[in-house]
Amino acid sequence: DAKTTQPNSMESNEEEPVHLPCNHSTISGTDYIHWYRQLPSQGPEYVIHGLTSNVNNRMASLAIAEDRKSSTLILHRATLRDAAVYYCILRDIQGAQKLVFGQGTRLTINP
Amino acid sequence: GAVVSQHPSRVICKSGTSVKIECRSLDFQATTMFWYRQFPKQSLMLMATSNEGSKATYEQGVEKDKFLINHASLTLSTLTVTSAHPEDSSFYICSARDRSVGGLTFSYEQYFGPGTRLTVT
To answer: pLDDT truncated to tens, each residue of chain B (121 aa)?
Structure first.
């Protein structure tokens, strides 16, 4: 499985935008970029995914570099409820399509 | 929609006993379910992939005789931890893959259950 690299932790303030980076230099042409987040003592929650183009949904935006070797999850206006561990995962559309989690980024939101 | 439930949410068992954890997709059919384990302060570790009507595929290093997985229907998969020991204490999480097709591309989104915290004394 192609690997991703994320900062261990990030901190931001409430109501400010947050940009969470992810490097995936070995991404293949059939890998989708997925973002999940996990709140304490809960199962992961789907945030967003994309292949080549930038994506927006009600939770976040995903900006994908032109060479697809990196991406950034954007939370436009962070709230305290956004404090979680955010995982950037590559999933091959072929094969088993399993999600393999890395260490993720622990996001702390200051009031 | 797309809700996955797990039962029980918490369980405490004595060393040497077996415990069963259920994972259900409540409003969609899941041909494939996944089982993960998570120790405190660590990431999720994939244990096995469970396909409806066939044997589970275990990740390297996971004992299939200790962690029995059954996926008897499109909405239910079970994980049985046999002869549990204190080192098996962990947070067990399942996920289910929606088999629906979205537009021109396959969706196959995965939805996660809330997790089951197992404590072996």
So the answer is: 689 999 999 999 999 999 999 999 998 888 889 999 999 999 999 999 998 888 899 999 999 999 999 988 889 999 999 999 999 999 999 999 876 654 444 455 789 999 999 999 9
User: What does B68-117 look like in DSSP terms, one character per residue?
Assistant: EEEEEETTEEEEEE-S--GGG-EEEEEEEEE--EETTEE---EEE---EE
CB < 8 Å to B105, chain A: 93
Contact criterion met (CB < 8 Å) for A41 and B117: yes
Within 8 A of B115 by CB-CB distance, chain A residues are 41-43
